[in-house]
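Your task
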Amino acid sequence: MRRVVDAVDGGDANATARQSPGRLAAVLTREAEKWSVGDLLYRPYSACRLDIPAESDGAYVIEAQAKWSALTVDSMREPKYAKSWRQVNDQVFVEQEPGQPIVTLLVACGIPGAASEQEAELPLQMTIMDPGLGVEQRQSLLSTFARTLVDELACTGNPVVPAQLLR
């Protein structure tokens, strides 16, 4: 996090909405276990929010969120999603919104004890919103966040979130 703060010339960052990976994984696991086909909306959980004072712009805000997605792994192959989502590997997809400091990652993550369709029908979605970090910082932050949460959730299918997500 210190490197992220330094990348935007931040001084004293105020971290709020911090949830440990274990606590976040517990909430997400409970939701996945209760899931059934047809459920579409799940609330996003803020994993971490950094408010970084800036001299001229007020403040920079960097936030990491996670939720179960209404998108499916199969939908990533549909033309309307394939235009903006890039397939990283068989289980990981990434979307960088053009002109926006937002990048979203979708991971096929099965939860032991959840319905058998859950892994493909209810992928894990993680988002990083930032004030315009460089590609390397954004990629590093999202990849680290995703790998940490995937490990904490003990996803079935052993999804591999690589360090290189963006081009």
About this structure: The first strand starts at residue 14 and ends at 16. The chain has a mean pLDDT of 84. The chain is about 30% helix and 30% strand.
